[in-house]
From TrEMBL:
It comes from Kitasatospora arboriphila. Pfam families: NAD_binding_10. Residues 7-196 form the NAD(P)-binding domain. This is NAD(P)H-binding protein. Transmembrane segments: none annotated.
């Protein structure tokens, strides 16, 4: 499968790139400059994910598009980056006639066992709140798209470096927790779930969440 991956050099994007390559896919990574990411697992090109014309040009000839685009926390305007990416991807894929899109999402809108959203917890880190709210808005916009085969994949409450075990659980809008009440996933195992969905997942035009 020929896959175009936006945000290929971030921590999660790089793990997704490695997983795709390990499974034999032909992957091209897209970054803002195209020249960063020494040691990247995939060749890189420059592109603006918020520019629908650029997205369409880059996407043509690919079977699927993956996005691991995310703002630098505390350094970028979360809403501008995330909603810009959402608009550019949707419009660009439509122009190019490519339907499959898998997107790195956020956990802030997941429902906790008491029925509230993760982001509404009074202990939710203030530093991450703008990102969470922007991700919630982006998910709302994807849910209005009925002509692309998109999947929005939310990680667990805690996603961090760790080992690749290949084990994970999937849910929908509910926060998954383990027997100790923790919600977590390693970055490599999130990448496994992400690529599983891209390859053959049946969760189309919906959100799934991933955790142990």
């Amino acid at each position: 499968m020929k896959v175009l991956l936006f945000g290929a050099t971030g921590n999660i994007g790089a793990a997704i790139a490695e997983e795709l390559v390990a499974r034999g896919h032909e992957v091209t990574g897209v970054t803002r400059s195209g020249g960063t990411g020494a040691g990247s697992a995939v060749p890189l090109v420059a592109g603006d994910v918020a520019d629908a014309e650029q997205v369409a040009e880059l996407v043509r000839g690919h079977d699927a598009v993956a996005s691991a685009v995310g703002p630098r926390i505390g350094a970028d305007d979360d809403r501008t980056i995330l909603l810009g990416a959402t608009g550019g991807l949707v419009a660009g894929l439509r122009k190019a006639g490519v339907k499959r899109l898998v997107v790195l999402g956020g956990a802030g809108s997941l429902r906790t066992p008491d029925g509230t959203r993760v982001v509404d917890d009074p202990h939710f880190p203030e530093l991450w709140k703008a990102n969470a709210l922007a991700q919630i808005e982006a998910l709302g916009r994807y849910r209005e798209v009925d002509d692309l085969d998109w999947t929005y994949i939310s990680p667990a409450k805690l996603i961090e470096p760790g080992e690749r075990t290949g084990a994970y659980r999937l849910s929908g809008d509910d926060l998954l927790v383990d027997a100790d009440g923790r919600s977590r996933i390693s970055i490599p195992d999130y990448a496994v779930a992400f690529v599983d969905q891209l390859e053959g997942g049946r969760a189309l035009r919906t959100r799934v969440s991933v955790a142990y």
